[in-house]
Design a protein that fits this description.
mainly beta, six-stranded mixed beta sheet, four-stranded antiparallel beta sheet, 0% helix
């Protein structure tokens, strides 16, 4: 079992920044890729960003150039630095493991006011 706990969400004005954190615990030694999904009201959950143990990263087109994912394996942490936030970034953001099975955290709300 893997447990993921997100933090760092909140209310921010358009153009502002937020940094999300994800603390992982449990059997995580075998997990290679971790990252973030988000779900906006009335929409399906969508991929945001992923990072592997080797440092390879991938982003959704909608956040490229604005969001940066990073990880600290010594602390079992994954981060998502978000800059230039837009109203369409408003969503619940979920930390996730990428694999079989996939684990999700409980989510943290990000609200961007225009």
């Amino acid at each position: 079992q893997v447990q993921l706990v997100e933090s760092g969400g909140g209310l921010v004005q358009a153009g502002g920044s937020l940094r999300l954190s994800c603390a992982a615990s449990g059997i995580i030694s075998s997990i290679n890729a971790m990252g973030w999904y988000r779900q906006a009201p009335g929409k399906q959950r969508e991929f945001v960003a992923v990072i592997t143990r080797g440092g390879a990263m991938n982003y959704a087109d909608s956040v490229k150039g604005r969001f940066t994912i990073s990880r600290d394996d010594a602390k079992n942490m994954v981060y998502l630095q978000m800059k230039g936030l837009k109203s369409e970034d408003t969503a619940v953001y979920y930390c996730a493991t990428f694999g079989d099975p996939t684990y999700f955290g409980q989510g943290t709300q990000v609200t961007v006011s225009s």
